[in-house]
Design brief:
single chain; alpha/beta; TIM Barrel; eight-stranded parallel beta barrel; two-stranded antiparallel ribbon; 8 helices; globular; GH113; signal; GH
Length: 351
């Protein structure tokens, strides 16, 4: 999910990726075999997760952070995802860099520790974004060799941090459709990550990208940001939404079988706006609240996929915005907090 942001905020560059060094010693992968697989007898556990993104260097050190983690835990969630984000000024740039909107390494380490102290497991899912409303799928560097070299430095930086903090799962990329078709380059990226981090790996492909990814067999899980439109008009009819998932689910089950990998919804979410199910990927659909539609969408997704052996779970996008940082009013935002969608999670997960 791409966050709307201002160009001015992105102008403050703190560090270029070419100057970034690892934060800890490498961790050898030891040549282990990726797993688990759809047909494994141990493949029945699913992620019950919620994403807590950051939009500022100090968000994860916010006084609100502990409350957010406790509230996430209270829904019955057992996982939380953190999203440190670097930026490119232009899609064609050869490297990415930090800004004041990049969570500091120290704050990321501390919030991982606090999540673990509450009994939550952690996935770190680093993002690379563009200014304003630009879609990261538009990233298409002129010099791909330079970009992938920079990307390897960026992603192994966080792989080291994940290893040092005993993070349970790691994503090697998110929605980079403009470069995700390069098998050789991504094989090198994944190999480099495995030299630094021993845990399970995924890649978060957008819902219209995942079938074009050539490197799933280098990873442990297929990751999909599951923003499929489910309706052509606003609806809070759970059964109608469940029926809309049926052909998608059949296609995903067959794909998981062909790839011999389970599928994790690395993101899924709906704004609490009327019409959310028509464009789940959109931050702004209307100025009318749609709490019932959001809750119905949560219920339909869980009805459709919970219990499927090929399905590895979901990490909902997203929990609350940080104080004073929300660009979308809380009553209209993706957060389920304090809305009927939170009750759906509590009813399903807090048992």
């Amino acid at each position: 999910m791409t966050r709307r942001r201002t160009a001015a905020a992105l102008a403050a560059v703190l560090l270029t990726v070419s100057g970034c060094t690892s934060v800890g010693p490498g961790r050898g992968h030891g040549g282990g075999t990726p797993g688990p697989r759809p047909d494994d007898s141990t493949s029945t556990s699913t992620m019950r997760g919620i994403t807590l993104p950051s939009w500022n260097r100090t968000d994860y050190d916010s006084p609100a952070a502990d409350g957010y983690l406790r509230d996430i835990r209270a829904t019955g969630a057992r996982w939380v995802t953190f999203t440190p984000t670097w930026y490119q000024n232009r899609p064609t740039d050869p490297a990415m860099h930090t800004t004041e909107e990049t969570a500091s390494d120290g704050s990321l380490r501390r919030i991982v520790d606090r999540a673990h102290a509450l009994g939550l497991k952690v996935m770190i899912k680093p993002h690379v974004d563009l200014p304003g409303d630009a879609d990261r799928a538009e990233i298409g560097p002129r010099d791909r060799t330079a970009w992938f070299a920079a990307y390897r430095r960026f992603i192994t930086h966080y792989a080291d941090l994940a290893a040092d903090t005993r993070t349970e799962q790691f994503a090697v990329g998110t929605e980079l459709a403009g470069v995700s078709g390069d098998l050789a380059a991504w094989t090198k990226v994944i190999s480099a990550v495995r030299d630094h981090y021993d845990g399970p790996l995924t890649y978060a492909a957008n819902y219209d990208e995942y079938e074009r990814i050539p490197f799933w067999k280098e990873l442990d899980l297929i990751g999909i940001d599951a923003y499929w439109p489910l309706s052509t008009k606003p609806t809070d009819d759970t059964e109608r939404l469940r029926r809309a998932w049926e052909p998608i689910g059949k296609r995903l089950a067959a794909y998981a079988q062909r790839q011999n990998r389970r599928i994790l919804f690395t993101e899924a979410g709906y704004v609490s706006q009327r019409g959310a199910t028509t464009a789940p990927y959109a931050w702004t659909i209307s100025n009318r609240t749609g709490d019932a539609e959001q809750a119905a969408a949560y219920r339909a997704l869980l009805d459709s996929f919970e219990g499927k052996r090929w399905w590895a779970g979901v990490c909902w996008w997203m929990w609350d915005d940080w104080p004073d940082s929300g660009e979308t009013p809380a009553r209209l935002a993706y957060s389920p907090h304090g809305k009927p969608a939170e009750k759906v999670l509590r009813d399903r997960w807090a048992t």
